[in-house]
Amino acid sequence: MEQIRRIARPTDVPDTGLLCDLLWSDPDKDVKGWGDNDRGVSFTFGRDVVSQFLNRHDLDLVCRGHQVVEDGYEFFAKRQLVTIFSAPNYCNEFDNAAAMMSVDESLMCSFQILKPSNKKSLYRYQGRPLTPPRRTPRTKETSSLID
After folding, report:
1. How far apart are CA 82 and CA 64, in angstroms?
2. Residues in domain Serine/threonine specific protein phosphatases (predicted)?
3. Whole-angstrom Cα distance, residue 37 to residue 95?
4. Contact present, 63 and 79 (Cβ < 8 Å)
5. Is 96:145 a contact under the CB 8 Å cutoff?
6. Average of pLDDT values for 2-23?
7. CA–CA separation, 129 vs 86, rounded Å?
8. Which of 80, 114, 77, 76 has the alpha carbon at shortest distance from 98?
9. Distance CA 140, CA 147 (A)
10. pLDDT of residue 118
11. CB atoms within 10 A of CB 130
């Protein structure tokens, strides 16, 4: 954690190293330990890596972003990690919802969901390549949140 605290800010993200990995690494249910990342940068990590990190730093939850998830948020590793994505209908390419997470005084997390708009934007994002969403089957819990 001290390495993260020592990162000079503001800064550019390098192609390799800690800052790159904090931004670009992704959870993967099919990986144990560390694996290659389809993004072509950084790594993927398994449930075991999440558990080890939380135990080592006496934490309960990792909150991360920077990856499209269909329902706006998605848990991983028995709810030890949550990915939150706050851009609905990302770049007009994905029909994803967005989410905002709130944490109350007792550390209970709750989510607000923003459904994608049916309107098409007048603008088209022309930046870096899009990050594809992970496709997961809808559950009763997540379906009720976005329907």
Report:
1. 6
2. 1-118
3. 23
4. no
5. no
6. 96
7. 18
8. 114
9. 11
10. 78
11. 12
pLDDT tens, residue by residue, 94-122: 999 999 999 999 999 999 999 998 766 55
CB 134 within 8 A of CB 70: yes
> What are 20-70's pLDDT values in tens digits?
999 999 999 999 999 999 999 999 999 999 999 999 999 999 999 999 999
Return the number of other C-beta atoms located less than 10 Å from residue 58's C-beta: 6
Query: What tokens were used for 106?
Result: 């007792």
Residue 111 CB-density burial (10 A; 0-12 exposed, 13-18 middle, 19+ buried): middle
Q: In terms of DSSP bridges, do strands 34-36 and 26-27 run parallel, antiparallel, or are they unpaired?
A: unpaired
Q: In Å, how far are 6, 19, 126, 139 from 3, measured between CA atoms?
A: 5, 10, 34, 38
In sequence order, the 6+-apart residues with CB closer than 8 A to the CB of 144 are none
Query: What is the spatial distance between Cα 99 and Cα 79, in angstroms, rounded to a whole number?
Result: 16
CA–CA gap between residue 135 and residue 68 (Å, rounded):
10
Q: Name the residue ranges covered by the structural domains of the chain.
A: 1-59, 61-117
Amino acid at 126: Q
- Extract the tokens encoding 15: 């192609």
Pair of tokens at residue 98: 């967005």
Written as six digits, the tokens of 145 are: 């949140």
